[in-house]
Design a protein that fits this description.
The chain is an alpha+beta fold. The chain has one domain. The protein contains six helices and four strands; from the N terminus they run ααβαααββαβ. Strand 2 and strand 3 form a beta hairpin. Helix 1 packs antiparallel against helix 2. The longest helix has 15 residues. About 12% of the residues have low confidence.
C-alpha cells in the first residue's frame, strides 16, 4: 500500500513528539491547497469527529475553512496512528486520558467560550480546529497584533498543547493560509 506524502509526514509527526508534531502539522496545513470539486472526487467526511467550530463571525467575506474532511482511504490509513497517539504519555502517568484526541471534544467548546468572552476578538471571523490537543486558528482578524493576541489567549486554555496560527489580516482570499471550503452551488 502506498501512502501520500502528507500521510507520511503525519506518521513521522506522531513519532516525533509534541514539538515535531506541531511543526509538521503546521507545514502540512500551510501547504495544503483546496481541492477543486469534480464529479470524480471521493466523498469526504469528518469521520473522526474532530471538533471544528466557528468562534466569531464579524467580517463578511472571510473565506470559510474547509474543516477536517477525510476520504475512506485516508480514514483507514490514519486510524491506527490516531488510536495510539498519546498512549505512552498516559502509561507514564503524565496525561490523564489514554489518547490525545480524547481531549479535543472538551478543548474546542472551552476555547470557543473563552475567546468569545474575551472581548478583544468580537470584530473577527475565526474558526478553530482541535486535533491531538493542538488548536488551529483559521479565519480573518483586523490586525497582526490581534492575531498574536488570539494565539496567546488560545494557548492559555487548559489541556491545549500547542497553537497553529493560520489567521489572515483582512478578508482578501489571496491572503488565506488554510484550505478553503468549496462554494455550494444553488
Amino acid at each position: 500500500m502506498t501512502s501520500s506524502p502528507n500521510l507520511r509526514l503525519l506518521r513521522r509527526a506522531a513519532r516525533a513528539g509534541a514539538l515535531g508534531a506541531l511543526l509538521i502539522a503546521w507545514l502540512c496545513t500551510a501547504k495544503a491547497q483546496p481541492a477543486a470539486p469534480t464529479a470524480s472526487t471521493e466523498p469526504r467526511s469528518n469521520a473522526f469527529g474532530d471538533p471544528f467550530l466557528q468562534v466569531t463571525d464579524a467580517m463578511p467575506g472571510c473565506p470559510m475553512p474547509e474543516g477536517p474532511l477525510y476520504t475512506a482511504q485516508q480514514v483507514r490509513e490514519l486510524a491506527h496512528v490516531r488510536a495510539q497517539h498519546g498512549g505512552s504519555c498516559y502509561s507514564a502517568g503524565r496525561c490523564r486520558l489514554p489518547n490525545s484526541y480524547l481531549y479535543d471534544a472538551d478543548i474546542a467548546p472551552r476555547l470557543q467560550r473563552y475567546l468569545r468572552q474575551d472581548g478583544r476578538f468580537n470584530d473577527t471571523s475565526v474558526w478553530i480546529l482541535s486535533q491531538r490537543r493542538i488548536v488551529t486558528l483559521m479565519g480573518c482578524v483586523q490586525t497582526a497584533t490581534q492575531s498574536e493576541s488570539m494565539e496567546h489567549a488560545a494557548a492559555l486554555v487548559d489541556d491545549v498543547m500547542g497553537v497553529v496560527n493560520l489567521l489572515s489580516v483582512g478578508t482578501a482570499p489571496q491572503a488565506t493560509r488554510y484550505p478553503v471550503a468549496a462554494q455550494k452551488r444553488p
